[in-house]
Amino acid sequence: MPAFTSFKLTPWLPLVILGLSLGYATTVLTRLPWWTLLFIAAVWIGVGVKLAWGRPLNARYRRIWPWSLVPLSLAGVYVYLADSFGNVDLGAVFFHLQAGMTEHGGAGKMVSAVVYIAVVAAILWSVTWLSRHDQRWRLAERYFAILLLATNPLLYGLGQRSVALVADDGEWLNRRYVPPLIEEPQQTPNLLIMYLESLERTYGNDIFGDAYADLNVLGEQGLVLEGIRQMDNTGWTMAGMIASQCGVPLMPAGLLHDTQFEPLQKVVPGVDCLGDILAAQGYRLSYLGGASTQFAGKGLFYRGHQFNTVKGKEDFVPDMEDPEYLNSWGLYDDTLYDLTVDEIRRLDEEDNGPWAVVNLNLAGHAPSGFPSQTCQDRQGPFDGQNILYSVECSAHEARMLIERLQREGLLDNTLVVVLSDHLTMRVSVWDQLTALDRDNTLIILGDHIAPQRIRRDATMLDVFPTILEAMGFTLNEHRAGLGASLLSEKPTLVEIHGIEVLNERLREETALQHRLWEGLAPQRRALEENPVTQVTETPADQADEVHIIR
Question: Which residues does the annotated region (Disordered) include (predicted)?
Fold first, then answer.
């Protein structure tokens, strides 16, 4: 104990803590290999020893509290989020806080969070000790605090949302929103939508071997749409599903929510989504998910948009033959897909109009996935880390489900849409993925879908009108929501403006946010008293647009 508190020896402990923490944060926020943290720590400790940090010649102890404690804590939160998810999306943080995080599968993240808290506490102690024992640190750390506040992306994002409240044009995206006005189709095919958790098309690159091979085989039978990029507020599961079924990014309710301290009761009630459109045409709608429907508002979204059957982990477990056959999030894919077959059989046997089934699997979930026992019997032992093993499992199980349904004749007059819900978050091949041009999976199969590949510069917003037109619906100018059908010649917003412009406008948007949460937000009297006719463009908007010539 005396050695630990010795004035001569104690500076080593804060120097080591800060050096290793700085090195680790650097490797998290960049693509540098993990071992560079040791080099960074060694340089830091060397400089500290050379300059005698913590034990200057004219040492004067002062019991002060450094200015940088709060900025350092906020920086620790950001590094934790970046380490856990790769890309930090403030929209996801805000939405999950309001929509609910019960029944989440992040038990492993809880351990990681505890470790991070302990490390941040050690960092705060180290900075406090050095500041109290070294007047140079007392002078320098206050400027360091300002630097941390100015460069923290969390605070930068909050600042941008605050600026949006006084932006000159907070209706740029809202003016481009087109309600999904449709003509009743002559035929009403059934619909099966399979969301493959985090299984982006980028995994099809040769550097990942055969991980994506089964989806390539499926793609040879139908339409493969390439170039589906990820804009802001579409990069997590609920956001990806809402973008592809409603044609809008998921802008959290935020301060528009009237009851800030209570969970949301509805999810994007102000726009018509795929479920609303199909229900109006007499479709029977079912959602089946491997995870709980209570997490992130999944159940609220699907029930609120007219799905008749909405089931997740909590609904399936009581009737499972082996209720212990679960992963930390919920059902393995082989179980979920057996239940999907049972649901489609039920709907087909009822013969009471067309049906639409949406399911969401778990096998590809970051960071390492949840391969089913069926896959492990086929692929061999899983090391618990290799995401490519889980990607291969997810792709194979999806292909097997489709082929099984085809053999039973359950996909007659049925459109099948296979897509990723979003790009993956941090996984074992993160460095290789982020070095490539990344895009989402989108494969469409059906009796009237000719095998081909189409590359368009698009986002998940464009999936919504694409599905509707593939089903035979006629859209006004091939548009719905903020999307344009990729089966038409209509240019997408990304093709016209570029994704950077869309993301910038999204950060400044207020009117679209009000539209999404209509009914939960305070009504704006000015708009009610002076209603504005909906337009898709203004003369000023058109002045800088370049039309796509095909």
Answer: 528-550
Residue at token pair 């490539």: 436
| Rounded Cα distance, 15 and 47, in Å | 10
Q: How far is CA 132 from CA 71, 118, 136, 137, 525, in A?
A: 18, 21, 10, 8, 55
CA atoms within 13 A on the CB side of 486: 28
- CATH fold of 187-508: Alkaline Phosphatase, subunit A (3.40.720)
Give the pair of three-digit tokens for residue 350: 């009822």
Rounded to an integer, the average pLDDT of 241-251 is: 96
Which value, to the nearest 10 degrees, does the dihedral of the CA atoms of residues 204, 208, 213, 214 take? -90
Does the structure show a pLDDT above 50 at 405? yes
SS3 string of 9-75?
CCCHHHHHHHHHHHHHHHHHHCCCCCCHHHHHHHHHHHHHHHCCCCCCCCCCCCCCCCCCHHHHHHH
| Beta-carbon contacts of residue 307 (< 8 Å; ≥ 6 apart) | 275, 285, 286, 287, 358
The three-state secondary structure class of 309 is strand
State how far the Cα of 203 lies from the Cα of 58, in Å rounded to an integer. Answer: 59
Q: What is the pLDDT of residues 171-227, one digit of tens each?
A: 999 999 999 987 777 789 999 999 999 999 999 999 999 999 999 999 999 999 999
* Four-residue CA torsion sign, 309, 314, 318, 321: positive
Report, as an integer, the average pLDDT of 506-534. Answer: 64
Peptide bond into 381 cis (omega under 30): no
H helix intervals, 351-498:
373-379, 387-407, 430-434, 463-470, 493-497
For residues 244-272, average pLDDT: 76
Contact 521, 258 (CB under 8 A): yes
Structure tokens at 246: 């409603």
Pure H helices in 473-549: 493-497, 499-508, 511-516, 525-529, 539-543
Percentage of the chain beyond pLDDT 90 is 61
For the chain, domain boundaries: 2-164, 187-508
Rounded CA gap, 39 and 23, in Å? Answer: 8
What pLDDT does residue 542 have? 46
